[in-house]
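tool=predict chain=A
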Amino acid sequence: MSGNLLGVEGLHARYGSAEVLHGVDFVVPQGEVTVVLGANGAGKTTILRSICSMVRTTGRIVFDGRDIAGVRTDRIARLGIAHVPQGRGTFGDLTVEENLRIGGFTASSAATEQAIDQWYEFFPRLRERRRQLAAGLSGGEQQMLAIARALVARPRLLLLDEPSLGLAPRITQEVFRALGRINEETGTTILVVEQNAHLALEIGSSAVLVDAGRVVSQRPAEGLAHDESVRRAYLGY
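tool=predict ok
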């Protein structure tokens, strides 16, 4: 898997007796944005949960040359994988800054402080609201907080599940511009599951097309949004 930070091989995943992923294979190139696209119920969210050992799996999940399939979720975070789940998962009864400090649980205090300052510079609105409870933030601000919290630990791989969920179109565009900048300026590798295929493909280098728990193909993102057969079959527009 030369040049790839993550490689998934023959991945099966299940919830109880129901198998959701059926032999999934794809790669995530180092330093790039990879987009996972498909209809609702295709298994996209389960792919991210599988990487983080949140569901039962068989197969290989190779991160930086090491098979991490079955490794405990907290250990996976310490290896350098951060996960922003669907619905953001911020702690509403904690302040913005308290949420960010939680993101640094795998790092030293000094490194956490430095990282918080870095992401305050990147997301100035979070600095302005640093003492405000997360529950009082707008949806877009909560998404920015969730992304910043995940980045405080300086992960090598950032997993994002539907970052546009529940956001107005203008805010969604702002979030995706931020993700593109994060990738360009920090080199953080990103794997993003997203329904808004058009925006996701604008920042992605490659796209993984998923249908009914199987990867149909992985191909360069460029030009994919203009492929009519792909749009109708997998992208929903």
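The beta strands are 4-15, 18-29, 33-37, 56-63, 66-67, 81-84, 157-161, 189-193, 206-211, 214-220. The first helix runs from residue 44 to 51.
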